[in-house]
């Protein structure tokens, strides 16, 4: 048997790649190039030899900081380009590689230029907004200044406004920085202040003015006809023009302070119409000049950003790679002479030759006189887990890794999940009409694979695109199971020939209620279409799907136990085979394997035996004769067979519990005694030479009570889990039945009911409702529900029999694994959690709907 198993060919995905711990001694002059070439190869995972040091105490902390600063500048350029509505276009011609120092200087120059242009643009925009507000105030406030007051008041106001409307006012400084000029002291004269304020502050502003002046003022306001950009937020806001009439210098001071507190901008308006027109013409002329200046500045800024955008993607890639290289160099140690860097890492065994060639090429390209020393080290710790996957198997491997990363060289469940996962999904989702819809969606994702892979997708769309091959297989298996169930949107078809049943009477018109009679050979493939609508349809389908679920469950759990045997044999653990695999196989199959055998015999013989009676009385009264419940030949020996199976099941429980802890204790005692005698003849020098890790491994204490409790928990969990896991597979029957009944309800109570009316509008509404229910309930919620339940069956019932999942992933230093941006990295990190939460919500809603 062992020779036969040894001759079996190895599977690529059955066990993880063999890993090797290697040490690199790299000269300083070729360190950067060596690490860069290793990043391009992407087959070496470095160990952090400076884990006790903070990031600021490491050798290349300055270079990492420089790269971080350049990354900040590149993000600034990208934000500016996006804000300007431009696109980052790449030049088609090849650009020469740029040194990091030259790139740093170029980025500094570009940033200084863009910041200066932004500053000038903000000042010009602020001046433009002030002039625009001044123009609106001049246009709106003139209607409030028509007055028939005394000439004294008019002369005073005229003198005050002439002070404001001199030619040097507009040309000299910013209007918002201007303050109201002191007016001639005339306490009996009527004065006014005009300005503009945000619309949402107007009522509070008016109330505050009224309280501050105790009602001794006249407030007029009118809305502006156009929105004005707020300089602080760059948003368009609605403003109102106001004019406040008052008397006295003290009131003027209060009003100006209130205007400043509310952010109201005050502008002087002459009362003379001629001066108003002259000032308006000057403001309009200045606005026209500023518009031309702003347009020219915007074009110049866009040209500068376009020049940066041509190389932005390449620069970001370069900086990202350089930062990754220096981060990796910080994981290496300097040797005693400070001339070489020492690094350690894991690599696949098959990649040692490639790594050695890459290091030789790096030595040659850097003109180093000393080559890189590359040698294999003895590993004490467990290596990382690495599976080579492709587009098809990667999605299934990710599903398994979401539960736990396989232990090094442990049997990989993803090999079998490629088939079992979509098949169990299809058992619950079986309808070849719905399967065709899923197939169209999967084919669409595959047809646009190259285009979608280059786009930034949302969380849900990224999940769908990543599982496109999973959806494809689920669709194909759903079509297969749908053909077995003979359901096309719940409608049966005579695809593989005529039915095996006919009416009892040739004249009967109610054959579906009076019953059918079999008159020819069974239907060639799948469920006979005549079962649909008959009075025995539900009992027949319930019996079929329930027994099929039990058979599938027992088969998959046995597969899990068989994989535990291969794991134990691979790792050389004969104790696990003798005291774990064998009793578990006996316990599971003496009870539930026997049930599966009875199901198969009943199907093959067409017996009417009651399996519930057989299994219940197997425990209550195993010696009782079966009578009419006999399923196979050998009735007199049946009680003896049942007693034998029960005894095997009861014996298997202590077999799992007691022998293994005591056997481990015996092995430990033998090793301990042998090591004690060996240490008597060992010198102190030998103890010093022995590695610390090996000594600590030998000095581990054997805790018998902890091992016994662990074995007790494991045994109880398996015994109880055998019952609960078998019952858990009945979800295949329940969800398949629910999917079929929901589909039938939507077809008969929506589509057929609406089609029974002659009104075309009612028919159209029925078709729309049926399509909506099919798409969002059957194709979306039912898909997610079946996906989630298939996930649970694999994670708990199947993988729980053999899978430890306590390993850690192989994460090599590779430039291709560097994420494009932080947002995409956050999406990938939260994708699993968001997907599971979304699935739970959809299944809860589906349960509420049912």
From TrEMBL:
<keyword id="KW-0812">Transmembrane</keyword>
<feature type="transmembrane region" description="Helical">
    <location>
        <begin position="637"/>
        <end position="658"/>
    </location>
</feature>
<dbReference type="GO" id="GO:0007035">
    <property type="term" value="P:vacuolar acidification"/>
</dbReference>
<keyword id="KW-0813">Transport</keyword>
<keyword id="KW-1133">Transmembrane helix</keyword>
<feature type="coiled-coil region">
    <location>
        <begin position="100"/>
        <end position="127"/>
    </location>
</feature>
<protein>
    <recommendedName>
        <fullName>V-type proton ATPase subunit a</fullName>
    </recommendedName>
</protein>
<feature type="transmembrane region" description="Helical">
    <location>
        <begin position="548"/>
        <end position="566"/>
    </location>
</feature>
<dbReference type="GO" id="GO:0000220">
    <property type="term" value="C:vacuolar proton-transporting V-type ATPase, V0 domain"/>
</dbReference>
<dbReference type="GO" id="GO:0051117">
    <property type="term" value="F:ATPase binding"/>
</dbReference>
<keyword id="KW-0375">Hydrogen ion transport</keyword>
<keyword id="KW-0175">Coiled coil</keyword>
<comment type="function">
    <text>Essential component of the vacuolar proton pump (V-ATPase), a multimeric enzyme that catalyzes the translocation of protons across the membranes. Required for assembly and activity of the V-ATPase.</text>
</comment>
<dbReference type="GO" id="GO:0046961">
    <property type="term" value="F:proton-transporting ATPase activity, rotational mechanism"/>
</dbReference>
<keyword id="KW-0472">Membrane</keyword>
<feature type="transmembrane region" description="Helical">
    <location>
        <begin position="467"/>
        <end position="485"/>
    </location>
</feature>
<feature type="transmembrane region" description="Helical">
    <location>
        <begin position="423"/>
        <end position="446"/>
    </location>
</feature>
<dbReference type="InterPro" id="IPR002490">
    <property type="entry name" value="V-ATPase_116kDa_su"/>
</dbReference>
<keyword id="KW-0406">Ion transport</keyword>
<dbReference type="GO" id="GO:0016471">
    <property type="term" value="C:vacuolar proton-transporting V-type ATPase complex"/>
</dbReference>
<feature type="transmembrane region" description="Helical">
    <location>
        <begin position="760"/>
        <end position="781"/>
    </location>
</feature>
<dbReference type="InterPro" id="IPR026028">
    <property type="entry name" value="V-type_ATPase_116kDa_su_euka"/>
</dbReference>
<comment type="similarity">
    <text>Belongs to the V-ATPase 116 kDa subunit family.</text>
</comment>
<feature type="transmembrane region" description="Helical">
    <location>
        <begin position="586"/>
        <end position="603"/>
    </location>
</feature>
<dbReference type="Pfam" id="PF01496">
    <property type="entry name" value="V_ATPase_I"/>
</dbReference>
